[in-house]
Automatic annotation (TrEMBL):
<comment type="similarity">
    <text>Belongs to the class-I pyridoxal-phosphate-dependent aminotransferase family.</text>
</comment>
<protein>
    <submittedName>
        <fullName>N-succinyldiaminopimelate aminotransferase</fullName>
        <ecNumber>2.6.1.17</ecNumber>
    </submittedName>
</protein>
<keyword id="KW-0808">Transferase</keyword>
<dbReference type="InterPro" id="IPR015422">
    <property type="entry name" value="PyrdxlP-dep_Trfase_small"/>
</dbReference>
<feature type="domain" description="Aminotransferase class I/classII large">
    <location>
        <begin position="26"/>
        <end position="380"/>
    </location>
</feature>
<dbReference type="InterPro" id="IPR015421">
    <property type="entry name" value="PyrdxlP-dep_Trfase_major"/>
</dbReference>
<dbReference type="InterPro" id="IPR051326">
    <property type="entry name" value="Kynurenine-oxoglutarate_AT"/>
</dbReference>
<dbReference type="GO" id="GO:0005737">
    <property type="term" value="C:cytoplasm"/>
</dbReference>
<dbReference type="GO" id="GO:0016212">
    <property type="term" value="F:kynurenine-oxoglutarate transaminase activity"/>
</dbReference>
<dbReference type="GO" id="GO:0030170">
    <property type="term" value="F:pyridoxal phosphate binding"/>
</dbReference>
<dbReference type="InterPro" id="IPR004839">
    <property type="entry name" value="Aminotransferase_I/II_large"/>
</dbReference>
<dbReference type="Pfam" id="PF00155">
    <property type="entry name" value="Aminotran_1_2"/>
</dbReference>
<keyword id="KW-0663">Pyridoxal phosphate</keyword>
<keyword id="KW-0032">Aminotransferase</keyword>
<dbReference type="GO" id="GO:0009016">
    <property type="term" value="F:succinyldiaminopimelate transaminase activity"/>
</dbReference>
<dbReference type="InterPro" id="IPR015424">
    <property type="entry name" value="PyrdxlP-dep_Trfase"/>
</dbReference>
Length: 384
């Protein structure tokens, strides 16, 4: 391996899913649903294959999908991107969008401000791009996760190129508020930073929490690349259809990288996701309500077990503090939980530079069928 990748191990998700398979444990680790998305979307993919949509799509994606993405964002957020003017590009999941953007926009040594904990592919992609991460920690402040504005200010230096924001946030379940986003936007404008947002959980918010895209704040439309994905919205994580929206010159830069990563892909799935965005957003609203109920069901079980749980305003994930169960270290807790209770969770310290702080957090996924979630809950009750 090259020096760029030497520090990277196997992703925690592959590792923990393999552990679950090997030991017969219930997998509340990797965030993927185990029930299918809307029947109309599944049928649309089959129809697209039958209709011969099986060759390369355009690098930017099928025109019908780009139009559907634009229409969905305009409806939901009142923000218009031109699908024919180079403002939308379809990617192999949000993962490829994030990788393309970081590779395309960062010079070696450029700094990227990112909230910690952060999704694992960010670290790997920054390493590939030669960029340096500048984490700003999310901490409990009152009854929710927040950040210290002074710490955010201090993380921005003359070398800062990008600010990378994930909201709704994996793994904390935090949904950034209008006030927090306003501060972030002001700093991006003041320091002339490009913002990159990962909004893959944009539809999955709970208790009325509202997802606000950073690009809709004053001064941000022209400096933000907005990334999302169909995986979570339509419970189709294996289809890997994502996208990036933004000003044409920034999208064009990302396209330069993307065309030599995968070039293009997923033609029939692109067609099906266009149908989903047009016709199945009611299904997504029902999914959100269903996930909220599952979150509450899992929280009850974790609380009964004696665990202190953290708030969760969106995403698939609920975190606990393992110190409430007499542990100091999440990896050790996850090992014991898998061995004794046969339940797999994710030690969230892998999303931290500050491992000492990260050790206390363990993440559970509640995006699971009744059979899986309830069996997981039954087993949690046996853990002592
Ligand atoms: N960002 C975050 C925060 C995620 O949780 C995930 C995992 N679904 C991704 C990006 C990757 O998305 P995709 O599967 O569309 O590549
Ligand atoms: N995003 C998913 C999670 O956080 C995992 C995706 C993956 O396995 N790469 O669990």
């Amino acid at each position: 391996t090259s020096s760029k990748l030497r520090g990277l191990g196997t992703t925690i998700f592959a590792e923990m899913t393999a552990l679950a398979k090997r030991t017969g444990a219930v997998n509340l680790g990797q965030g993927f649903p185990d029930t299918d998305g809307p029947a109309g979307v599944l049928a649309a993919a089959r129809d697209a294959i039958s209709a011969g949509l099986n060759q390369y799509p355009p690098v930017d994606g099928l025109p019908e999908l780009k139009s559907a993405i634009a229409a969905a964002r305009a409806d939901r957020y009142g923000q218009v991107f031109d699908p024919d003017g180079g403002e939308i590009m379809v990617t192999a999941g949000a993962t490829e969008a994030i990788a393309s953007v970081l590779i395309a926009l960062c010079e070696p040594g450029d700094e990227v401000v990112v909230f910690e904990p952060y999704y694992d592919s960010y670290l790997a992609n920054m390493a590939m791009a030669g960029a340096v991460r500048r984490p700003v920690q999310l901490r409990m402040a009152g009854d929710r996760f927040g950040f210290d504005p002074a710490e955010l200010r201090a993380a921005i230096t003359p070398k800062t190129r990008l600010l990378l924001l994930n909201s709704p946030h994996n793994p904390t379940g935090k949904v950034f508020t209008a006030a927090e986003l306003t501060l972030i936007a002001e700093l991006c404008v003041e320091h002339d930073l490009i913002a990159v947002t990962d909004e893959v959980y944009e539809y999955l918010t709970f208790d009325g929490a509202e997802h606000i895209p950073l690009a809709t704040l004053p001064g941000m439309r022209e400096r933000t690349l907005t990334i999302s994905s169909a995986g979570k919205t339509f419970s189709a994580t294996g289809w890997k259809i994502g996208w990036v929206c933004g000003p044409a010159p920034l999208v064009a830069a990302a396209r330069k990288a993307k065309q030599f990563l995968t070039f293009a892909g997923g033609t029939p799935f692109q067609a099906a996701i266009a149908v989903g965005l047009r016709d199945e957003l009611d299904w997504v609203a029902a999914l959100r309500a269903d996930l909220q109920e599952r979150r509450d069901r899992l929280r009850k079980a974790l609380t009964a077990m004696g665990a202190e749980t953290y708030p969760c305003e969106g995403t698939y994930f609920l975190q606990i503090d393992v110190r409430s169960l007499g542990y100091e270290d999440g990896v050790e807790f996850c090992r014991d939980l898998a061995e004794k209770a046969k339940v797999v969770a994710i030690p969230a310290q892998v999303f931290f530079d500050d491992v000492e702080t990260g050790r206390r957090y363990v993440r559970f996924a509640f995006c699971k069928s009744d059979a899986v979630l309830d069996e997981g809950i039954r087993r949690l009750a046996t853990f002592t």
